[in-house]
Amino acid sequence: MTRLVDLRRGGSPTSRWSAAMGEPRADLRHVVRSYGEYDEFSTGAVARREIPAPDAVLVIEFAGPLIATGAVDEGTSRVAAFLGSPARGPALTWHDGWQHCVEIRLSLLGVYRLFGPVRELAGRIAPLDALWGRAGDELTERLADADGWTRRFDILDDVFAAAVAGGPEPDAEVAHALARIDGTAGAVPIGELVTETGWSRGRLAERFRAQTGLTPKGAAGLVRFHHAVTAMSTGRPLADTALASGYYDQAHFTREFRAFAGCAPGAWLRSRLDGLVGAGIG
Questions:
Q1: Using an 8 Å Cβ cutoff, are 263 and 256 in contact?
Q2: Domain end: 114, 132, 165, which one?
Q3: Considering 165, 184, 219, which residue would you say is the last residue of a domain?
Q4: Any domain includes 96
Q5: Full-model pTM
Q6: CATH number at residue 205
Q7: Which residues of the chain have pLDDT under 70?
Q8: CATH number of the domain that residue 23 is part of
Q9: Do 213 and 254 contact (CB within 8 A), yes or no?
């Protein structure tokens, strides 16, 4: 297929990076938000703070394993292919100075369609072979052997299309509730979702969590936080960002930011990595 790809690069005296960003084929866009192939080099080790967004990230490394820990993990893992799912807290990753990988951003219900029930995945680093067994290892090997991002993205299209065809379909009520949360930037009252789905509050919470890893309230908070971070990253003042995103005031936003990111908004902005994409841990 013909695929539009955004090629990017950057660097500093001590680092450099390049990226190819593309979309999946049209019939997968409810499952896959984006593909990216990244290659970065730094003269020193790189530590990142990955703040949560309302999607999950599948990472497949070619340069060697990362050290990673999810928001609720009790320790670190050394992993070369893994799924990171969002929760109320950041994930942390480390590499020794060279990283070459593909990164696939999946919708929350896309994770369910590919891997089945996700109740226990929220906030965790899940090795791909634990989710897909030998099929996960085979995908990693095929991608590593492929010649460039064009072929790698095509392989991902084919593998994901086959997995979705044989995977579970989310409840229509869960899909509706998630769409309402996304469409209102997290502002929809949970009581409205209960009324609109015709389910009890308990059933909605249970089914929603089984298929997204989050409760409706948790998903709404995450979507609101993501919208606020997007606004803040453009240089919008914190007080304006807070009010426009539905927080009571700047202090409320700061408390929520600390809960999701593990640091204050200003500290996160100041921790952007020199010459690389993302934010550091310190």
A1: no
A2: 165
A3: 165
A4: yes
A5: 0.95
A6: 1.10.10.60
A7: 282
A8: 2.60.120.10
A9: no
| The pLDDT value given to residue 272 | 86
What type of residue sits at position 104? I
Is residue 125 domain-shared with residue 255, that is, in the same domain? no
Provide the token pair at 156. Answer: 């991902």
pLDDT tens sequence across 105-160: 999 999 999 999 999 999 999 999 999 999 999 999 999 999 999 999 999 999 99
Residues 214 and 81 reside in one and the same domain: no
CA-based nearest residue to 275, from 97, 84, 59, 37: 97
Q: Which amino acid is at 100?
A: H
